[in-house]
Amino acid sequence: MAIDTTNLTAYQDAMQALYNLLNQSYNAATSLDAEMAINDLADAVSDILTELNQDGIAQNTAQLQALQPDVNAVNASITAAKAQLSTWVKDVGIAGQIAGVMDKAVQLAGTIFT
Amino acid sequence: MNEIGPTQAVNQRIRQFGAQAFLVVAVALIAGCASPDAANQIKNFSNAVALTASNSVLAYDLVEKEHFDAQFSRAVVNYDGVHFNPVYPTFMTPAELQVRLDILNGFTTYAAQLSALMGNPTLTNLDQDTTKLGQSLNGLNQQLVQSAFVKSALVTSNDVQIFTAAVNFLGNWIITRKAQNDAKAAIASMQKQVPAICQLLEKDFAIMHNQLTNDFTETERNTDLYLQTSYHSLDPIQRRTELKHLAALSIEMHKADATMTAIQSSVEKIEAAHQALDQAFTKDTSNVSSLINEASGEAQRVAAYYNSLRTNQ
Fold this sequence. Notes:
Order of helices and strands of chain A: HHHH
Helix content of chain A: over 70%
Strand content of chain B: under 5%
Order of helices and strands of chain B: HHHHHHHHHH
Radius of gyration of chain B: 27 Å
Largest interface: A-B, 26 and 28 residues
Number of helices of chain A: 4
Low-confidence stretches of chain A: none
Largest sheet of chain B: none
Number of helices of chain B: 10
Strand content of chain A: under 5%
Helix content of chain B: over 70%
Mean pLDDT of chain A: 90
Mean pLDDT of chain B: 83
Shape of chain A: elongated
Radius of gyration of chain A: 14 Å
Oligomer: heterodimer
Number of strands of chain A: 0
């Protein structure tokens, strides 16, 4: 399994932007169910950010490879969540922003774990 | 042969004493007291470094505490009444934390030794375990720094190389500190090393700051969700307690955020003060004095935050 760290910083930035937008949308969610769904996704994104923040991970290919199953799982959650966004978030502008960042995060993850 | 009368003898002794006094003052000036308050400036610098280092250690504790709280808050929301695993991984491993503590101790020891060279009494026991610390820093290699200390997304391998060399140099300086007898020369020898160490510490704190913010928001979100899902099963007193907790979290988050910003700034100011520290030996010490005061003031603000945390507990 090949690892290319060229876009690692961009990927982390996209995941951080997604996390921030999810926090924002949690406070403006349409229902408790929507809040729970957003919270679950935000927790999963937070796990990836923590692993990326933990020291030396980018220097260590083995650690990055170990991260791949989590990245794959969060990518699946992001893709599934994108279809639900309009029911979770009232504000069309925020929903559009989240969808854009979701696409970017998934695309960048694909360039790292090739 | 001329006999010396009592008055002449007194005058001669006064002249001799005057010459000796002049010699003592001259030697003192040459030895590093060109500015009358050089010793005081360096003592203040040493105190600011010690306070910044102790604040940094408390910052690492704060990051770990919030990381635990975030994981715990999530476990509470997800608790199914059957499975509860109260063991949560720390953000840093003990080895990663130890590398940071050694570096901070090394920097504090260096500043305390500078102050001692200027004749100031030291609060730090410079002999106790100091050689061991120096050996530990001197033996730190690039691979260990890369795996335990920094993240390459923000730090290049060149940064790591410079940082490792700086820490090794600091370690060696501590080992040979007894041979050091000139504070001015010691400061000159550290002009490249201190910025390398401070700049990497600042980047490290930026990562810690990001983690702390993410963990706080996670705790806040999960606490809010717990309150919403459990609201009807809580009595009014429990509801009030949970609401108060949520309100306090928001205040804590803002304070912690400001404190992490201040710690990064504090390290930056220590670096700037050290770069100007040789000015302590000149007649005009206004610039270095102002830089040391800024570093000290920032460190005291951070310390006040930690004191308020202790008071609130």
